[in-house]
Amino acid sequence: LKINLRNGARNKTSPLLHGLFFEDINHSGDGGIYAELIRNRAFQGSDDVTGGTKDLVGYRPIGNGVKLELDITQPLSDALRYSLKVTVPANATGEVGFLNEGWWGINVQPYTYNASLYVKPHMPSFKPASTISGLTFSLRSNLTDEVFVSKEVPFPPNISAYRYTHLQTTLTPPKAAPNSNNTFAVTWNGTAAAGQTFFFNLISLFPPTYKDRPNGLRKDLAEVLEGIKPKFLRFPGGNNLEGLSVDTRWDWKKTIGPLVDRPGRPGNWGYWNTDGLGYLEYLLWCEDMNIEPLLTVYAGYSLDASGAHPAHTVPPEELDYFIQDAIDQLEYAMGDVTTKWGALRAQHGHPEPFSIKFVEIGNEDWFSDSYAWRFPRFLEALKKAYPDITYISSQAVEENPTKQNITIPPGNMWDLHHYQTPQFYKDNFNYFDNWQEINGYPNVTIFVGEYSVLSRDRPGGVDWVNGEGRFAYPPMIAAIGEAIFALAMERNPHVVKLSSYAPLFQNWNAYQWTPNFIAFSANPKDLVLSTSYYQQKLFSEYYGAETLTVENKNGDFNPLWWGATISEDQSRIFLKIVNSEKDRKTVKVELDKAIRSANATVLRHRDEYAFNFIGNSTIVPRAQKVDRPRGRKVEFVAEGWSVNVLELRV
Ligand code: AHR
Description:
By secondary structure, the chain is α/β, with parallel strands linked by helices. It folds into three domains: 2-12 and 544-649, Immunoglobulin-like (Sandwich); 18-34 and 210-409, Glycosidases (TIM Barrel, Alpha-Beta Barrel); 59-206, Jelly Rolls (Sandwich), CATH 2.60.120. The protein is built from ten helices and 35 strands. Strands 1, 2, 28, 29, 30, 31, 32, 33, 34 and 35 form a ten-stranded mixed β-sheet that branches. The radius of gyration is 27 Å and the shape is globular. The structure holds alpha-L-arabinofuranose. Alpha-L-arabinofuranose binds at residues 23, 25, 237-239, 305, 363-364, 417, 450, 502-503, 513.
C-alpha cells in the first residue's frame, strides 16, 4: 500500500463522524442508563404496556399478613395516578412494610444514595399522636436479608392524611454488598401501626450519577460511551419517538419538569417508559459529554414495528399542530429566557440556552406513504423558525420505490439505516463514492443514523421474518463488517457526515433486539463491551484530520480493506486495515516520506463468530509488534479476521 503524503489529494475528515444513537429499547433507559434504581417507582406498570395493566412488579410485602395493593383513589398527581396501598394487619407485630427488587437487582456500594418517596397515611385509621413516628429506609440482601445500611426517616410534625408527604434522605452503606441481588426496603413498627393503611408513590433511589447530575445517568454506562469519543447524540428514537399511536408518541412536553408531573407512556418496545430521562435530561447528557444534540422530532406518523397496532398518519389538516409542537420544542432548548418555552427551561434549572445544530424530521419514514407531503411542510416551517439548523430527512429516494420520492433540498441531510450482513457492507464499500453526483443530490449529505451487522452471511441477506442467522451478540465478523462500512464512510467525508451504531444498549434481563453495542445488568461486573464497541473505539481514537490517498499495486479491496488519515499536526498517519478472511496477510506499506516509528493496535480473533460475553471479554484491542520501519517502508502482518490500526510517525 502506497500512501501519498506529498502529492495525493486530501480531504478534511468529517469532524462529527462517530456518534451515538439512543432510544429506550432493551431497557436501555429505564433500568439502564437512567440511574433510577427503583423499578416501577410510580406504579405505572411493567411489561404488558399495551394491555394497559398496571401492576406491582418489583414489590414484595415485609411482615406477616401485610397486604400490598394497587390503588387509584389516592393519586399523587394528575400524572401519577396509581399508588401502592399497604395494609398492616390488626394483629401485626415486628417489622412491616415493603421492598423493591430494583431493576433485577440493586448495586450496593459504599456510595451515598439519595432515597425518597411520597407517603400518605390513610385517614380513618391514622392516629398521628399515638402511631409511628417515621419510616426506616434500608438496603438489604435479597438472598440473606442482611442489612447493608438502614436509616430512620422521621415524619414531619405536620404529616397529614389529606396530602402526600415527601420524605427524603441519603443512605451510605459502609461496604459493598457481595452481589447485586439486593433490595430497597421501607419498613416501620408493626405493633404501633397495627390496623393502619398507608399509600406510597414515586419511590426513588439514585446512586451518584454521571457528572453528579440530579436525576442523571448511570455513571459506568455513561463513561463507556465517553470511551468511544462520540461527537453527537441522536435521541429519542427510533421507533420509540413515533409511539404505538399518535397519542402515545414521545411527547416532549410530558417529559419535562418535576417528576411528579411526568406521566410516562407505553414505549414502543413493550415496556412502560417513565420519561424520567426526558427532553431536558437528554440535552444535559449532551452538555455533560460535550457532544452535539441531534434531535428527532415527531413528524405526524406513528408506527409499531411489531405490527400489533396499525400505523397511523396525522391527517393534513391536523399537521400544523405537530409542526408547532416541534417549533416549541426547539424554543424550549434554544430560546432565551424571554421566550415562553425558554423561560420554562430556565424554570427547570437551565437558563442558558442549548444549541441544536441537527434536527431529524421523523424516523424511518420509508415505512409511510405520506412523507412526501409531511416532510416539506415540516421543513419549511422549521427552517423559517430556525434557519441555521441542518435538517435531516428520514426518507429519500432509494428505499421504497413504490412510494413517493422525497426531494431533499441542498444543505440538508438524509438519514439511512442499515441492519445488514457482512457481505452487504463489502458489496456496498463504494456506495458513498460520488454519491451526490450519481444521485443528482448536490450538497445533500448523509447521516448513517443506524447501522450494524445484524446477521451472518446467508443467501438472501438478513432474514427478518424468522431471524435465521441473526446474531445474539456482535461477533468478530460483525466488527469486521462495520469496520468496512466505517472505512467506506471515512473515505467520503464530503458525503457522510455522521454515523451511529444501533442499538446502543442491552439489559441482560430484558431485551427486544439483538445484537447490541453494550450489554449490562444491575451488577457492574456484567458490563460487556462488544467487538463492535471496540471497533468504533479504535476508529474514533485513531481518526485523523485529513484523508490520504492510498494506492495498491496488487489489486483491489477484498479480503483486505483499508483507508488512511493524518493527524492535525501532520505527525501521525493512521492506516486502518481490515482483514475479512481467516488467512493472515503481509502488507507492505510505503510512504513518500521516512517513517520514524510504527506501532499497531489490533482487534482480532481466530474464530470469526467469537464474541465478548460476561466473564469472557477477551476480544479487545491489543498492541501488536511491528518490524522497525526501513526508511519509507514498513511491513505489517494483518492477522486473519482482524481490524488493525497502524500508527506511523513521520
Ligand atoms: O434500533 C432499533 C430500531 O430499528 C429503531 O427503533 C428503528 O429506527 C429501526 O427500525
